[in-house]
Design goal:
This is TolC family protein. GO terms for molecular function: efflux transmembrane transporter activity. Pfam families: OEP. By secondary structure, the chain is an alpha+beta fold. It is built from ten helices and eight strands. The protein has a four-stranded antiparallel sheet, with no helix packed on it. A two-stranded parallel ribbon has the order 1-6. Strands 3-4 form a two-stranded antiparallel ribbon. β3 and β4 form a beta hairpin. The radius of gyration is 38 Å and the shape is elongated.
Amino acid sequence: MHHLLRSSFFSTLLSWLFVIGLVAASATSSSAQMPVSNQALPISAVSDTLRITLPQADELFKNRNLTLLAAQSGIRENQAYELQAQLRINPTLYIETMPYNAQTHETLPFKQTNSEQVVQVQQLIRLAGKRNKQLAIARTGTELATDRFYDLIRTLTYQLHTTFYNLFYDRQSLGIYNEEITTLQQTVNLYQQQFDKGNVPLKDLSRLKAYLFNLTTERQQILHRITDDQGDLTVLLNASPTVTIQPLLPSGAPDQFVVSSLALSNLYQLAEQHRFDLKTYRDVVKQEQQNVTLQKALAVPDLTVQGTYDRNAGYIPNYIGVGIGISLPVLNKNQGNIQAATIRTQSSQQALSAYTLQVDSDVQRAYVKAQQTEQLYRAFDQRFNNDFGRLIQGVTMNYKKQNIDVVEFLDFFDSYKNSQIQFAQLQNDRMQSLEEIVFAVGTNPFRI
């Protein structure tokens, strides 16, 4: 029996070492095959591995994310509109001459005695501060683009962090499944040999194989989640698809933040200051108010100043004149645009009030959920998993010695797997709840 155990162990070890590109030599009999050992790694063909901590991931994200780079272009675009709003209106030049003198039969005559030329220069002068009001609206537009940029950072950072933790704890769960599958596969191989010799019943072997298949199926689901998370992180970090991202999390990281150290009233205040999506609503209200001011200014007519030179105008050879023109605001006083701008201002103020309530609700909900997860996490005895790990080793040994039956063995085996997976999920849930607080507040309240 010990000789068979050592042989199966070395066969599994070889499968793990040569899983990329190699397949372990199968045993001579059907009972010695190991169908799951060639899936020990989450990705079987990679060219490189990127081991990265969360701060390092944040740095790469800010420097390389293509969506952020595109959003920065939006800010520069609005700054260009702001520059355009500062420019003054160009003057207008008008020149008139005779194409043909019917009396002298000359084409395009330019002599003093046989033609007339007119030159006019016009300049529009905007009154009521229209230029400054349009510039103020353009500047607010730049502020809105900046708000959207920083809110995009907040949203994508939340996605980056949650995906990072999902991948980290899924890889931990994958390690648990790999360990259990390897141990159970060894047991199945030994019992297959014993069954072939008629020493164990078929029902025991069938139970073991059925549970092994169930573990393999569950493991495959984790592999799918890991593949999805790998793809998401690759896009967020603008990394090569051939690179395997391996998150690194210091052992004390989950315990350095405590939800009970936060005050809900303080979180509301922080959200008011740091939620750029909320600031976007404020800036929209500001811009609509500026538009009302502009529309009222547009009701004031602009002034046109004109200078005219007319050679051979009539009663004097060289006529020079100046003129001023202005429209009379009798019928059109821009009433409709002023009314529409006022309505939009009222609507934007109502939208701001509604969204402020939504932000407060987000903060309160995230805080309560984090408290609940924190209580469960603190109540869990982390020594339980270590004790259970030692217990399952004894159970496995006793089963191989046939001191316990297959039902008891699989019951302990399943309990061990569930406790390990649930603890990893609990740790992930806790980190996710902390990230939800950061997302709801708009900044990290644990570092303020």
